[in-house]
Amino acid sequence: MKKIVIFLFWIVVGMVTGCVSNDTTKVIITAENYPLDTVRIVWMAGGEFKGEKVPLKNGKGEVEISAPEYTLVSIINDDPAQRITYGDGIIPSPSINFFAEMGQRIRVQFDGERWPIARIDGGKVNEDYMRLWGKKGPLERKKWELMRVLYSSEDVDKEPLKQEISAIREACQQMEYEFIPLNPDSYVSLHLLPGVRTSLPFEKYEQLFLNLSERVRNTEMGKSTSEQIAMTKKSLPGQPAPDFSKVDKKGNTIRLSDLKGKYVLIDFWGTWCIPCRRSHPHLVELHEKYAPKGVYFINVAQENDMKFRDNWLKVIEEDKMTWTQILNNEGQEGCDVVRLFSVTTFPTKVLIDQEGRIVGRYLGDSKELDKELEMIFGE
C-alpha cells in the first residue's frame, strides 16, 4: 500500500510540474522591461532555419521545441528601438543564446533594458555556457551601446568609439580562446571554434579542434567541423585554387581555370552584410587601380534566399561594381563556390596568382590585401 501511495504521489507531481518529452527541450522565459508581447526564438535544423514566436503574459512564456540535441538556440530582440539603421541596411541587436538539451527545462531570464545580459539555467551544456556568458554578456552589452552611438550620430568623434569597440571584441575573443583548451569535453568549446578561427593561424585553430575530446569531435557538429577543416586545407595560401564553373549575372559562363595567366581577386559578400557593403568603395578603388594591370575581379554573393536576387542586382548597381558578378545561390547544388573556398566569414577576399595558386585570404577589412598587391605590382 505504501508503494502505491508513493507511486501515485509522483504521478501527481508530474501532472502539476509538467513533463518534458525526451525528444524536446522546454524553454521557460522570464522577461522584464521588454515592450513586446511575444519573443522570437530561432535555431538551425537540417540546414534550415526553424523558429517559434513565444507569447508573453506578464513577461512570462514557455514553449517546447524540437531542436536537435545541443543545437544553439537564439532569442531575437524584435524591438525596433533596439536595432541600428545604417543606410539602407539594419544591424540587428545581438541575440541571447542557449543550447537545446533533450528532456531539459531551460530557463532564460533577461531585462530588456540590459539586453543581451541574461541568466540561463538548465542542463550541463548551458551550465558550461553560463560560466563564459556571465563574463562576456556585460561586455557585449557595452559594445552594443557603443555601436549604437557610432552608427546613429554624425556629431561624435568616431575613432575612439571604433577603438573601444575593437578592444571589447578582442577581449571577448580572448575569453573564448582561453575557455576552449580549459574545457575540451564541453560542447560549448566546439561551438566557440568558428568565432576564434578568424583571429588565429589555421594551424592553431586545427590544433584546438584536435585537442577536444573524442566525444565532442564525434558529434554531428564535430564531424562537420572536421570536414570543414579538411576543405580549408585545400584553400590555404600556396594550394591550387579549387576550380569552379558558374554563370554570371550577364549569363556568361565563368571558369576559374580559363583565367590562368591572370591574377584573380574573388570577393565573397552578401547584400545583407553591412561590413561587405562598407568595403565596396575601396574595392572599386582597387579595381580602378589593378584591373588595367591584369587583375581579374570576381564578386561571389551568398544570399539568404533566391528571392533576394533582384535586390542583389540593385545593390551591384548602387555600389558601382562593374566587373564579373556571380550569385552563388544559382546552381549552388552543383557548384557551391563558398563551400569550395571554405568561406565562413563575410567579407572574405581570395587572391589567386597566374598559375592558379592561392596567394592569400583576407578577412573583413584587412589591409594585407593592399600590401600584397603593392608588392606584386611594385606600387
Automatic annotation (TrEMBL):
Subcellular location: Cell envelope
GO cellular component: cell envelope
Key words of the record: Cytochrome c-type biogenesis, Disulfide bond, Isomerase, Redox-active center
Main location: other
GO function terms (MF aspect): isomerase activity; oxidoreductase activity
Residues annotated as domain Thioredoxin: 235-379
Gene Ontology biological process terms in this record: cytochrome complex assembly
The keyword Isomerase appears for this protein: yes
InterPro entries per record: Redoxin, Thioredoxin-like_sf, Thioredoxin_domain, Thioredoxin_ResA/DsbE_sf
Source species, domain of life: Bacteria
Entries under SUPFAM superfamilies matching the protein: Thioredoxin-like
Any matching Pfam family: Redoxin
Protein name: Thiol-disulfide isomerase/thioredoxin
Organism: Butyricimonas paravirosa
